[in-house]
Amino acid sequence: MPNAAVELLEIEPEIIQVTMQDKTHKNAFSKELTDGLMEAFARIKKSSVYKAVILTGYGHYFASGGTQEGLLRIQQGITKFTEDRMYSLALECDIPVISAMQGHGIGGGFVMGLFSDFVILSKESVYTANFMKYGFTPGMGATFIVPQKLGASLGHEMLLNGGHYRGGDLEKRGVPFPVLPRQEVLGYAQELARELAEKPRNSLITLKRHLVTPFREQLPAVIEKELIMHDQTFHDDEVKKRITTMYGV
To answer: Taking CA 31 as the corner, what is the angle to CA 29 and CA 34, rounded to the nearest 5 degrees?
Structure first.
């Protein structure tokens, strides 16, 4: 791929790894990263060989959510988070997707990872649904997938308070994902992918479709309601001030 922000690497003939590596933006949703992810999953969809996808980041970063510029464009009513469906690429992918979240998962970046079929966290990294930190209600399907994957109590807590949680802290709270030292996350994901690759591709596709169809069917209505809440909350002057002064802090 010509896009340097996203690397496609064939680990084995039936396993493809998508590595987000936009170091300029620390894997925030820059145009380069967004375009790279869309292109990567489009290429995966065209393949009739792959049986598993590993989605991962670089260094201490998995994915960092919206850029400051992108959030301000939404705040000003120039665009919406639904301009593309990048956040649900893993959900829409025909074959199983493993989020090897070796680094920080922030806001929409954390949400994007949760839409995968398998999630692996790092003990050291920070995970947050920090939309409310900036004063606007969550988007990108967060109000659905965060409670769905983490449980209602912890999910609602994360969405309402927008707090930061280390992977080790989430492990103590009983999250249903492997939580490993950072250096072990990718290796664990690759072994899991090899186990998946032992199965017939058609059976993997058929079973995944069955398992995620309820999610795919419910998500559009959730997105519509999140957009209504954005119309009610995102355009306040306080939100603009928070994005301007608190971004990246």
So the answer is: 60
The length of the chain in residues reads 249
Retrieve residue 226's tokens. Answer: 């999140």
In angstroms, the CA 246 to CA 153 distance is 27
Query: How much is the pTM?
Result: 0.95
d(CA 169, CA 175): 9
Q: Splitting the chain (249 residues) into consecutive groups of 10 residues, what average pLDDT does each group show?
A: 85 96 95 95 97 98 94 89 86 98 97 98 97 95 97 97 96 96 98 98 98 97 95 93 88
The closest of 59, 146, 65 to 103, measured between CA atoms, is 59
- Kindly give the interhelix angle for 68-75 and 237-246, rounded to the nearest 10 degrees: 170
Is 60 one of the annotated active-site residues of the chain?
no
Give residue 112's identity as a one-letter amino acid code. Answer: M
C-alpha angle with apex 29: 129 to 188, nearest 5 degrees?
A: 70
Catalytic residue among 156, 164, 230, 235: 230
Q: Which sign does the torsion angle of CA 154, 155, 156, 159 carry?
A: positive
Q: What is the DSSP string of 100-113?
A: EE-SEEETHHHHHH
